[in-house]
Amino acid sequence: AVSAYDPQNIFAKILRGEIPCNKVFEDDHVLAFHDIAPQAPTHILVIPKGAYTSYDDFAANASDAEIIAYTRAIGKIAAAAGVVEDGYRLIANTRDHGRQDVPHLHVHIIGGKKLGLMLP
Ligand code: 5GP
């Protein structure tokens, strides 16, 4: 593995119920909650329940059921948040160069306003 999973990361603590979150969606494989420091009117974090550090780790090691659940959940959560028609952005910051802060895979769903340009 590129880097071992740290079971003390903040999203692992949220998954164990050790710290609270403002939940948006949950099923067997997925949890979604509002970002604690929203960058736009809609800013939701979607995480798999499994111990995956990053998208590449998840893509390589998750089961088909986990991948299907996660992919579909992101779409459903965006629709439920009401951002589909006007549009939104998905972001998965990864490791050092990607400026990932929390080492548990999370996709940001950001929308609700016209976003700034951000690449790179
Ligand atoms: P990253 O930079 O790793 O892609 O983003 C981590 C995100 O997690 C940030 O947007 C940050 O605001 C959010 N975050 C960090 N700690 C917490 C927390 O305890 N609860 C929630 N809901 N979001 C958090």
From TrEMBL:
Signal peptide: none annotated. InterPro entries: Histidine_triad_CS, Histidine_triad_HIT, HIT-like, HIT-like_sf. CDD domains: PKCI_related. This is HIT domain-containing protein. Gene3D superfamilies: HIT-like. A motif (Histidine triad motif) lies at residues 104-108. PROSITE patterns: HIT_1, HIT_2. Residues 10-120 form the HIT domain. It comes from Thalassospira permensis NBRC 106175. It comes from the Bacteria.
